[in-house]
Amino acid sequence: MLDATLLAEIGAGDDIFWAGNCPPLGRLNTSHRLFDPTHDFRQPPSDHGRFSAVYLVEKDLGQHKQWPLILDEALRLLRYGQRSKLFLRFTQNPLLSIFALAAFLRRRRDFSFELIHQDSHPNGTIVYALNCQREELIPTLSTFEFALISDGQRTHNVVRFIDSVRQIRGINQIAWSVALCGPRSLWDDLSVATSLDNVRFVEEPDQHLGKPWITRKKNLIVESSTAENLLVAHDRYEMPAAFLDQMFEFGADFSVIAPAQANLAGQRFPDWVALSSQWSLTPCNLLQYGDYSPHLYVNGGVIISKRRVLTDTPWNNLLFWSQAEDVELSRSLTDKGITPRLAQKVELRVTDSRPGYRFDFTRLPHLPHAYAAATPNATDPCMAVTSKVQLDVLINLRDRSPQQLHDLGIVAEGNAWLNGAAGWIPLRPQAELSINLTPRSNTHISVRAYFPLSVNNADICISANDAPLTLHWRLTNEMQCATASLDALPPSAHQVTLAVTAPQATALMAIGLIRQGPEGLNHLPVDLRRYPVSLSHNARILGSGWSPPEAFGAWTCGNESKLQLPLEPAMLGRNLKLSLSMVAYGPPKSRRQWVGVAVEGMALALLEVRPHKKPVRRSIRIPRALVKNSSFLHVSLSPHAPVSPAELGQSSDTRRLGIGLTAVDLKTCW
Fold first, then answer.
1. To which H or E segment does residue 582 belong?
2. Displacement of CA 217 from its chain's centroid (Å)
3. What is the mean pLDDT of residues 522-544?
C-alpha cells in the first residue's frame, strides 16, 4: 500500500512509468514486462529513455532474485541527459539488502543519484525516492562490427562466418564491417577463398606465439574498431539471417549482452552461465532462461557489447585462453556498474565445438527463492545445492511440475517440454532433460524410461551426453519400458543429460536410474503411490502455493495451497479417507488456525488446528462421486489467517504462512 509521502510524489503527464498492473492513477503508463522472464525483464525499445519518473513500487523488488536485471532496465527507461526520478520499494532478505542496492546504484557510471527520501516501515518495507541524472549519450544500432578471433586452423569456419554476416537481412541499411584477428597466413588463405569487401585484418601479436593469447587479440580488435556495437566471437559461430531483426526487437539501450546459442541440431549451447562462487574456480553451470545468479558470467565464446564498455574495461592481458578470462572480465564489468543481460531471442548458431563441451556445464533448475548451485557454497546462504536422483526409484512424471522434478533430481529445459496428466511431452524433435547424480564408485547403472503402448518403439531414440543408447524394450503395466546401460558414464559424473527423440505428442511417463546386478531392482513398480506420504524434503504431491519443503514438511504460502494426490486403481469409484498431519503457524498467543479443505473444487470441511509442538492429525471423508476416473485427486487447503514472520516481527521473512503439512495419508473407507 502506498503511503501519503509516496502518493504526493506521483505526477501527472504521459512521461510517468508504473511497473505493474495496478497504478493509483489511470493516466500512468503501465506494464509488467519488467518482471517477465520471457521478455528478459525488458520493456519495448520505444520505452527506453522516454520517462521522467519510474515507479518500481507495486511489487516488492526484494522478492525477485533477478532484481539487478529489473533495476537495470528501470534505469534505462529514464530520459537521456535529463533529471528524472526513481521510486523503489523492497524488503530486505538474503537476496537483497539495502547496502547491496545502494552499492549497485553507486557503481553506475552512466548515472548520478541524489536521495530525496528513504522511508522504513514497521513491517520491514523500505521505500526510496531518488533524483537521477543520466548521461546524454543516446545509444543506436547504426554501426556494428562483427569480430572473429582465429588461430588460422579453421579457415572454412571463418569463411562461413563472413558469408553469414553478409546474408543478415537489412545489413546494408547500417554501417557494418567484419574484423579478423589471427596469423598472417589466415588472411592469405581468405584472399583466395572469399571476397574481403568490408573485412579488415588485425594481425595477432608476435609475443607469446606458443600460447593462445586471446585476451590480447580481442583487445586489439576493440582498440582499432570505430563501431558503436561490437560482436566478438571465436571461430565456431555463424550469424542468423534475422540477427538485426532480433537486435532491433531487443533494443539499442544495453551495455553487455549474452546472446542465446544453439548448435546445428538445435540443442542449447552454454550461453547463460555461472559459477557457484565469485572467485573460486567451481564447476561451470548452465542457467535456465529467465533465471539469475550473482555469480553469472558471459561465456567467452561470444559477447555483444558497446565498444566504449570494452574500451573502459578490456580483457585482462595477463590471462591466456582457458584461464577463466571470461569470468575475470565479467567480474570486472560488474565492479564498474555493468549488468550483463541475456538476450534469449538473439540466437547465434554454433557450427562446431569440442566433443563433450556442452556437458562440462551442469544444468541448473530455476529455484524461485534461492540461487541454484551444483556444489555447496558455505559462504553464501542464498545458494541452494541441487537435489540428486535416488537410484532404484522410478519417478512418475505425470502431472509433475518442474519444481517437483527438481526436488527429485531432474532438470528439464523449460521451453523444451510440456508437463501434463499424460507425462512430459517433448516440444522439439529432440528434447533434453538432465538427471543429477551422486558420484558413485564401481556402480553400473541403467536408465529406464516408460512410454505409451500406442507408440511404435522403433520411432524412439535416447542418447546420453550425445552418445546414442541401445534400447531394450519390454511391456509392463500397460506401458512400454525402454532400458539402456549407462556404463560409459564415468563414476565421478554429477549429471547425465538425456536427449529424447519421439513422435509428436508422445509422453515420457516415468523415468529412473537402476543399479545393475543383484543389488538393483529387476521389476520396479511404475506408480510409486504408497501412502502415507511424508513431506520431509519431499515435493512429490505438492502443487502451487507451497514454500519449498523443509526437514519437518512444507508450509502453505498465501491464501490457497494445492495437493495432487496419486490415485491407486483400487481407489477409483470408492469413498476415501484423507488424513492430514499439520501444525499451525501464527502469533504465540493465537488459540487456533482454521483451514478450509476442498476436493475437486468442492468445499468439504473446515478444520481447526491449534498450536502444538507436534503435528495434529485431522481426517475427512471424500465421497466416491468426487473420486473420478483419473490418475490424481486435487485437494486445496485454504488457511483463514495466513501471516508472515515479518508481520509478527520475528524476521524479515515475508512469506504468508498458515499451516505446516508434515504427512498425508489416503485410504479407501466405507
1. strand 576-584
2. 32
3. 66
